[in-house]
Each structure stands twice: as C-alpha cells, then as structure tokens.
Amino acid sequence: MRGKAGLTHLRGGALAGKDHPAIALRGRLDSLCAAIVEAQVLGEQAGSAGFAEDLQEALGFARSILAAEYGGAPMGGLRLLGMTGEDLRERCQNPERHFGRGHLLMDRGMGPLCARLNSLRALAREAESAAAAAFRAPCTGAAAASGCAGAAERGGASCGCAGLSAGAATDGSAPEAGAGGGASGGEAGEAGAFLRPDILEALNGLSAFFYALTYKYLPDGHQGGR
C-alpha cells in the first residue's frame, strides 16, 4: 500500500505522523542498532574480534526491543554476557568493587574502542528518553484534576504526555493501554507512569552494559577517572 506523505505505519492498519513519539523512538532504536554494527566493524579493524563478539549480544538485544515495541509484545529479561540488569546496575554504581577503579571521565586517551562504547551508551540513553516520551501514560482522575507534571512543565498547558498507546492514530482507533507490559511501575493515568516500563528498563540496562564494557577495553596504563 502506497503511504501518504508525512505518515507511516504505527501498528496494524493505523497510520501516524513521522513526528509521532513512537516513530521517533523507532528511529532512535534503528540508529542505535546501526551504530552497534559500525562499532563491531571498528573492533574487527582494530584486531579485536572479542569486542565485536561482545557487541553481538547487545545488537540482538537492541533488535528485540525494536521488535517488542512494534509488535506490542512484552520484553524478556535482560541478560548480556551473563549479566542481568541488576548485575549491570551494581557494577556501574560500584565500579571500584568490580573493576578496581572509580567512575570514568571519558577522554581521547581511552582509545577508539572505548570512545565508541561511550557513544553507544549515549545513544542508548537518548533512546530511553525517547521511550519515556512515547510511553508516558495519559493523566486521568486525580492526576489530571491536580495538574500533571507534563502540564506543569508547559506552564499549565494541556498535558500532552500521551505517547504511543495514548496518542490517537489516524484511523481513530482506541489506544492500546497496557500493551506489552501494561502500566506496571504506576497505574495508567497516574502522573509519572509509563505504559511500557519494560522497554525503558531494557534501554536503561543496555546503556549500563556499554558503560560496564568500557572497563574491559581500557588501554593498559590508562589513568583517567573521577
């Protein structure tokens, strides 16, 4: 079916503007996957096959996030190189305990592989922010009556926090509240709640993975840190 200018498929037969928060999120995820592949090529060119192999798991996981968002399916648990999301958070919060050095202050002395991991970490964080915009639950009930955070940020303007499931598609279909994980992490309609907390948690864990992996590929003798 020929598409309309400025529109693209959101889900099923529904169309949405290409500036729709969910479409913006898909673009961020697509860019992240592309950047991981480029990083793998860089690793192979630098003679580090292990670097490329380590990133293969991250690539597969990033692609699974994209598939889960598009299909409305729940995310499975995160496990990268044998580490769960909880394991990764622990390592990132307490690097001295796990890596023998403090938090990293990125600099060019870290070399091309670590510099690229830092870029991947930043891209994952940008995707997480895009997911927060796409999946913020619409405010209802007491939250709407008292004014949600989104409205406060807009100087009292209408909420505008509705994302993927709350936003109306061009076919007029109703939102798919709770698709692929529901509104856990906050009831739908509660200020600050998200309709896909599983995707936000997955992206948060992925950015932590890139940060933790940086320690593995630091050049010998590198002294940078905080």
Brief account:
This protein is mainly α.
| Multimer state | single chain
End-to-end distance, in Å?
54 Å
CATH class of the largest domain: Mainly Alpha
- Structural Rg: 20 Å
Into which percent range does the helicity of residues fall?
A: 40-55%
Model description:
The protein is mostly helical and about 230 residues long. It folds into two domains: about 15-135 and about 200-215, Hypothetical Protein Ta1238, Chain: A (Up-down Bundle), CATH 1.20.1200; about 135-165 and about 185-195, no CATH class. Helix content is about 50%, strand content about 5%. The chain is built from eight helices and four strands; from the N terminus they run E-E-H-H-E-E-H-H-H-H-H-H. It has helices at about 20-45, 50-70, 85-95, 95-100, 110-135, 140-145, 150-155, 195-215, and strands at about 5-10, 15, 80, 85. A two-stranded antiparallel ribbon has the order 1-2. It is globular. Mean pLDDT is about 80; it is low at about 140-145 and about 150-190.
